[in-house]
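Task card 7
Instruction: Convert sequence to structure tokens.
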Amino acid sequence: QVQLVESGGGLVQPGGSLRLSCVASGVTFRYYTMSWYRQAPGKERELVASISSAGGQTNYADSVKGRFRISRVNDQNLVDLQMNSLRPEDTAVYYCKARNDYAVRYAYWGQGTQVTVSS
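Output:
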């Protein structure tokens, strides 16, 4: 059974930082590209950042470049999203996604974690 469990969300003031974590189980983690998405109320789910299976390539949405950093530790089945200089428009539910590099039909989502940026 595949599980992606996110943690680290919460309430933070504008300009603050949060670190989201996602731990995967039931998959061979090193075969999966990992991504963070977010969905704000009334909006489509959007890609925030992704990292290749070996960790050598990362990709960021323009809106978070220079503020967010994605990283992974394959030995721990862990992917993190460090979020700095947070803005109210970063408020959303953040989801972790795993996509198999060899069979893209094998894609899994976490349950999401709420991030609220407000004073």
